[in-house]
């Protein structure tokens, strides 16, 4: 059995965590795999001046990738090949699986995402909100984004400094800015606590003193160590349609390393916390302040939450749980 995965790029989270980390489980099930992606990536460069060249380069390369993918027994499409559009997907042979881990249909152009879904033999959705949309067009199954618990594991030793931590793409920094008053209030109360940001760009806060912020440039080799020594991990979100499509992966990585969490009470975040008291879901600035203060003031409670979080991930969201399920889904599509 052979499958070709068309992913969004080398270091893109979807490529790494919705496909690449599952390859050993596929191999164990007798599925040989190949991964293809354009050199230029599925997402446009920040510079608008470079976007026409990026689109042209992808337009040349994508037909070659589609031609190569069509030689395989099955194709696994991890999101769209060019963000918001249906391009080479129209020429993919059937059957192919469409894997979606964000509410990408909200920003689609010319109904491109829905057209891809209609052609797919199956749409794999990261959560129930995504499935509710894509079930209109194709057969669906929900497989949450898993965490490799052998890699994301609790650190050893007690850190010398306490940290409120956030890890993610700079596109998500806007959520941090929205709770900046709460973060500032907590930092003012606890002089031994700093705000640790792991991202591809340094944040620019309006009221938080820069001396209270530790910035760590994200790198795949250090992403685990960067969160292992957090005192509490945070995942703020607004409560909108795009956020409903989030698969809580940031939250799950904190939990996997035994860190208690404070998260916005939105969508899948609530679902995860229903499994146990691994943290606190909040809905207002005051609740953010109260929740962070509670965890920072009670080390015993924080340790207990971290242990429960680790167990939740091991039981429900580990690659050892989700990987065999994906292998089974792929096998069924090849039969």
If you had to describe this structure to a student in words, what would you say it looks like?
With 335 residues, this protein is α/β, with parallel strands linked by helices. The chain has a six-stranded parallel β-sheet with strand order 2-1-3-4-5-6, with helices on both faces. It is globular, with a radius of gyration of 20 Å. Strand 11 (261-264), helix 11 (268-273) and strand 12 form a beta-alpha-beta unit. The protein has helices spanning 13-18, 23-28, 51-69, 112-119, 128-134, 173-178, 180-189, 223-228, 241-244, 249-256, 268-273, 285-297, 299-317, 319-334; strands spanning 2-6, 32-36, 74-78, 96-100, 122-125, 140-142, 162-167, 193-199, 213-217, 232-235, 261-264, 279-282. The mean pLDDT is 97. The chain is 40% helix and 17% strand. It contains 14 helices and twelve strands. The protein folds into two domains: 2-146 and 319-334, Glycogen Phosphorylase B (Rossmann fold, 3-Layer(aba) Sandwich), CATH 3.40.50; 162-317, Rossmann fold (3-Layer(aba) Sandwich).
Please outline what is shown here:
Helix content is 40%, strand content 17%. By secondary structure, the chain is α/β, with parallel strands linked by helices. It has 2 domains: 2-146 and 319-334, Rossmann fold, CATH 3.40.50.2000; 162-317, Glycogen Phosphorylase B (Rossmann fold, 3-Layer(aba) Sandwich), CATH 3.40.50.2000.
What secondary-structure arrangement, pairings included, does this model have?
Elements: E1 2-6, H1 13-18, H2 23-28, E2 32-36, H3 51-69, E3 74-78, E4 96-100, H4 112-119, E5 122-125, H5 128-134, E6 140-142, E7 162-167, H6 173-178, H7 180-189, E8 193-199, E9 213-217, H8 223-228, E10 232-235, H9 241-244, H10 249-256, E11 261-264, H11 268-273, E12 279-282, H12 285-297, H13 299-317, H14 319-334
Parallel strand pairs: 1-2, 1-3, 3-4, 4-5, 5-6, 7-8, 7-10, 8-9, 10-11, 11-12
Helix pairs in contact: 7-12, 10-13, 13-14
